[in-house]
């Protein structure tokens, strides 16, 4: 079964995460395929807007921690750093700067690395049952690799979510400006489609310039530099885990995600 589905119609490319049996946990192959789908949409002159959605009950449970990691005693900080730089930080930044408007449709759980899929999108529409969380402080790490927390939530709400590990509800996310709209679950796809059609009617060059203006304003304020520097802070958590106990910090979060898959 394909982990990523792609469809383009009426100027809208729809990219769907397609691992519902695993709560759309992200394998490295899934991320590679997702990047290929975004690239395909960017290159298609008929595509005006890109929608990212997910099949199943949950948007994404984050990284699939069983996927292609070296075994105990084999994993190194260099391996982790190189793998996460490419597929986590660089992919997310590339999707953020896609020269076309992007919309994320989020339902159910969006955990940790799930944030690295919706945060790079220009707009987020959430179902009423959506919950956003980053519980990796439980693993001894200060936050997921694409550290948009302060910008997306504001500093105090970001600290609360990280310090406690509790999920942010869809309505809370809308109040702090992280989510554009909250809609009933059964209206999510139609609402996103209507929004995409409205945007697709705008001049493509104007949309591209508007997106660049907002993104570059954030970058001048330090957004890009902050993501780069906090990514290195993130790696110190991995280094500490390796030095203390050989990286079993994956176990706790893995068990939590297994419970989610059975929910």
From TrEMBL:
The keyword Ribosomal protein does not apply. The keyword rRNA-binding does not apply. InterPro entries: ClpP/crotonase-like_dom_sf, Enoyl-CoA_hydra/iso. Its EC number is 4.2.1.17. It comes from the Bacteria. Pfam families: ECH_1 (PF00378). GO terms for molecular function: enoyl-CoA hydratase activity. Keywords: Lyase. Belongs to the enoyl-CoA hydratase/isomerase family. PANTHER family: ENOYL-COA HYDRATASE, IP11341P-RELATED. This is Enoyl-CoA hydratase. The lineage of its organism: Bacteria, Bacillati, Actinomycetota, Actinomycetes, Kitasatosporales.
